[in-house]
From TrEMBL:
This is Spore gernimation protein GerA. It comes from Bacillus weihaiensis. The chain crosses the membrane at residues 279-301, 375-394, 406-430. It comes from the Bacteria. GO terms for biological process: spore germination. Its main location: membrane.
Length: 491
């Protein structure tokens, strides 16, 4: 068996020697009337209060002379007695205390005293909602699982943990509801995570890039959310959640394109209002991608399509502009992207000021200087505003990027170029999958039963079945016949 760097498995002497090179490693000798022992631990990983109050008094007592007796006396779960140096190394790095009867003797007792430092559960920052729960995930894996356990109080909720990353050994938890979720989806997810070969995993975004079906697609193929209520609802549908220790975001799969434009707020409103808001979002996405390319294509190739009254307005607004429409549009689009990046990277208060003042000053100055027309300035501003309606941030970034290929195709072939670029986009989406499931479902392949919660949201009483594409073991969520019975008990 080999060790890191190609060395053989170390002895305890070699292992302790390696740890001693770190200033936060502690090892000391002590004794009682019955036995002499050695205590080893990494100070920055151990809860010293737990160690001093719950463990140390018993270790110092005369109640034990063998490690087995010590294991029975200490009120701590998961005490391990082992001679395996790999296990000792792993547990030391996980915040365990090692007690042995000689400095380099085996076996050793491993006692859990891990310190858990994490911020408190707070409000969602990316998926904020006016109504509904106000909790968001944090960086602690145990806290995040607790938030789901509180919402799904069922023994069928399964949590499967893995360690990913040759160097970081990051904990990754796969969550699903047994007897509901398709076993094939579970096996696919777990196998892909196991196959990850990378030294360090810092966030769930690392995982989604490594297990996606198509690594070269700009579209996210796993839904990223920070809301526990959304995760618990999606798990009940038969999907799978992936949590990463140290990340406040949870991955959900398999997913579809329409889910990225569905805010979880939609389920807190009346179905008519929710459907209206969802359609507004879809229209805003199409508007954000296409409106500037259509402007460029029309002014470059298709003047005859513009009504005379509007044509006079366009001519007067562009009279002093020396740039062709494509350069004019690229100038404003790139300016908007620069303002977004500056606002996102600067401290919050400064970023808001830069976004507002910079947009006003640059927009006004560019029109007065004759670098762009006021009509295009309005169009680009509305396009940027429309792109902010996307509920999932990762998809919002994709929408921002898609405008530029459409712009270049519009400059190349006009409206025909826009249609050609749209055909390329649809071909890519038709071939795209999420955990092997169609990404465009229920639009293609068309599934009428799943359209109830896709482009619009119908009443809950009509959602008696889980999504057909998930191939769940229990397709029915409840009896549709009983759901239609609305009579009061006294009728």
């Amino acid at each position: 068996m080999t060790y890191e760097g190609g060395d053989e498995k170390p002895t305890l002497v070699q292992l302790i020697a390696r740890f001693r090179t770190s200033s936060d490693f502690v090892q000391y000798e002590a004794d009682t009337d019955k036995v002499k022992y050695w205590v080893s631990y990494i100070r920055t990983l151990v809860d010293l209060k737990t160690f001093e109050q719950s463990i140390l008094p018993i270790v110092k007592s005369d109640k034990w002379d063998k490690l087995e007796d010590l294991k029975k006396s200490i009120p701590v779960e998961n005490i391990i007695i082992t001679i395996d140096t790999d296990v000792i190394k792993e547990k030391l790095l996980a915040g365990y205390i090692v007690i042995s009867l000689s400095e380099y003797g085996l076996p050793s007792a491993l006692i859990k005293a891990t310190i858990n430092k994490a911020r408190d559960v707070s409000l969602p920052e990316v998926e904020f909602s006016v109504v509904g729960p106000k909790e968001a995930f944090v960086e602690s894996l145990e806290s995040n699982i607790n938030l789901i356990r509180k919402r799904i109080t069922n023994e069928k909720l399964r949590v499967y943990e893995l360690n990913v990353g040759d160097l970081s050994k990051t904990k990754v938890a796969v969550l699903y509801v047994d007897d509901v979720c398709d076993e094939q989806n579970v096996h696919t997810m777990i196998q892909r995570i196991r196959d990850i070969k990378f030294d360090q995993i810092s966030d769930s975004s690392f995982i989604t890039q490594m297990i996606s079906d198509n690594h070269n697609s700009p579209f996210p193929q796993l839904l990223d959310t920070e809301r526990p209520d959304r995760v618990s609802s999606i798990l009940a549908e038969g999907k799978i959640g992936v949590m990463v220790d140290g990340s406040p975001h949870v991955l959900i799969g398999p997913t579809t394109l329409v889910e990225f434009f569905s805010a979880f707020d939609d389920y807190f409103y009346n179905w008519i209002n929710a459907s209206f808001f969802r359609l507004i979002r879809l229209f805003a996405v199409a508007f954000s991608i296409l409106v500037t390319p259509i402007y460029v294509a029309t002014l470059t190739y298709h003047y005859e399509l513009i009504p005379n009254d509007l044509l006079n307005t366009l001519i007067s607004s562009r009279r002093e502009v020396p740039l062709p429409p494509i350069l004019e549009a690229l100038f404003l689009e790139l300016t908007i992207e620069l303002l977004r990046e500056a606002g996102a990277r600067l401290p919050t208060k400064v970023g808001q000021t830069i976004g507002i003042v910079g947009g006003i000053v640059i927009g006004t100055a560019s029109v007065e200087a004759g670098l762009t027309s006021n009509i295009l300035l309005i169009i680009v501003a509305l396009s940027a505003l429309a792109s902010f309606t996307t509920p999932i941030y990762a998809m919002g970034n994709t929408i921002r990027m898609l405008r530029f290929p459409f712009l270049f195709f519009a400059e190349w072939l006009g409206l025909l170029g826009i249609v050609l670029c749209f055909c390329f986009l649809m071909t890519h989406l038709l071939r795209l999958t999420s955990l092997g499931r169609p990404f465009l479902e229920p639009i293609y392949p068309p599934r009428t039963i799943d359209m109830k919660d896709a482009l619009i949201r119908l009443p809950f009483s009509l959602m008696s079945k889980r999504p057909q594409q998930l191939r769940t073991e229990k397709p029915k969520r409840f009896s549709a016949k009983n759901a239609r019975k609305n009579k009061d008990i006294d009728e």
